[in-house]
Write a structure and sequence with these properties.
This protein is of the alpha/beta class. Among the domains are: about 140 residues, Rossmann fold (3-Layer(aba) Sandwich); about 100 residues, 3-Layer(aba) Sandwich (Rossmann fold). It has 10 helices and 11 strands. The strands form 3 sheets. A 5-stranded parallel sheet has the order 3-2-4-5-6. Strands 9-8-10-11 form a 4-stranded parallel sheet, with helices on both faces. Strands 1-7 form a two-stranded antiparallel sheet. The longest helix is centred in the N-terminal third of the chain and has 19 residues. The N terminus is likely disordered.
Length: about 350
């Protein structure tokens, strides 16, 4: 298993690439099946009927198959009159052109909207986010797209403003977007998207713990009472060889809530145990030697860190200084670790 280098040199948003990948997986499942659902863990009981009823048929494009002809062949072959067996009838081959019409999807393309702060107070926080999303789209298109459909990403600037965000989402719906991916601290759009049954991905916020159409890439939600939580981040870490995980966050209520929820998901993944929980890491750049030593002493082979980018860099540098080798080191906001 390749070891993960430690000193990041490029801050383009890796989490944007991850959530775009989650969204693309949703698209792949939605094009020829019913409403996409990732593996989720129910943290509180929900009636399955209520979940099913929340699926919006606007996003359903089930394929039709010709079973009746095959049934007729079977009946004729088993009849008392021993009628001659007709030649086998092949079901019609499904093509993109034969799929029912779906908003934002054509036989050759899929429209996806990116919502985030290109301007406004949070613009500097999310520099590179839309570029990260476009990079993932380009990678998929280079492989032929999704089921032969090329993806088109359109940018919607929410200006870090609640009213502007709703307006931009409504504009996107009017421009026939299949769904959205987001990198923003503004959350006013979620009720609109939920009521319309529009899929959206993004990083952790309360909607990802309650809305069946919303998929978070951070592994858990900051909601105090989540009903749903995705496991994909832990599953990705497991694929990289992680078996003993240290879960760390800087000392804020939202980061602690998200990482506590992540810790609760570890037993549901299987083959992985949490060996260390640190919930009071200093925010921002700091001397992380003591944290690195605790990680080393715990025997952890992987780390999931929630905090400011500079804090993650501090921890990565301290781990390197202590000679700690990790199979997986997840820090939202960091990428291009092989520098």
């Amino acid at each position: 298993m390749d070891q993960v280098p430690y000193v990041p040199c490029n801050r383009i948003y890796d989490n944007e690439i991850v959530q775009s990948e989650i969204f693309l997986h949703s698209v792949q499942r939605a094009i020829h099946t019913q409403w996409p659902r990732h593996r989720t863990v129910r943290l509180t009981p929900l009636l399955e009927d209520s979940v099913l009823s929340s699926r919006n048929t606007r996003r359903t494009t089930a394929l039709a198959v010709g079973a009746s002809a095959s049934l007729l062949v079977a009946l004729a072959a088993n009849s008392a009159t021993a009628a001659p067996t007709p030649a086998p009838t092949k079901a019609p081959v499904a093509t993109n052109a034969s799929c029912p019409a779906t908003p934002g999807v054509t036989p050759t393309g899929i429209n996806i909207g990116w919502v985030g702060s290109k301007t406004g107070p949070a613009a500097t926080t999310f520099i590179g986010a839309s570029e990260g999303a476009q990079l993932r789209i380009d990678q998929e298109n280079a492989k032929g797209g999704v089921n032969g459909r090329k993806l088109t990403l359109k940018i919607y600037d929410d200006q870090t403003n609640p009213s502007a965000q709703i307006s931009q989402v409504q504009k996107g719906l009017g421009e026939n977007m299949f769904g959205f991916t987001s990198t923003t601290s503004t959350v006013s759009m979620y009720p609109t998207l939920k009521s319309a049954g529009i899929p959206i991905t993004g990083f952790s916020n309360p909607a990802f713990g309650t809305d069946i159409n919303a998929f978070g890439d951070a592994g858990a939600t900051t909601s105090a009472n989540p009903t749903l939580a995705p496991t994909q981040v832990l599953e990705k870490m497991k694929q990289m060889g992680a078996t003993k995980i240290a879960i760390i966050n800087h000392a804020t209520a939202s980061a602690a809530a998200g990482q506590n929820a992540l810790a609760n998901l570890v037993p549901d993944v299987g083959g992985m145990t949490m060996v260390l929980r640190i919930s009071d890491s200093p925010a921002g750049a700091h001397d992380a030697t003591s944290e690195a030593l605790r990680i080393k002493s715990s025997g952890a082979d992987s780390v999931n860190y929630s905090g400011f980018i500079d804090g993650g860099i501090s921890l990565a540098q301290a781990l390197k200084q202590q000679g700690v080798s990790l199979k997986s080191f997840a820090v939202a906001g960091l990428s291009d670790l092989q520098c």
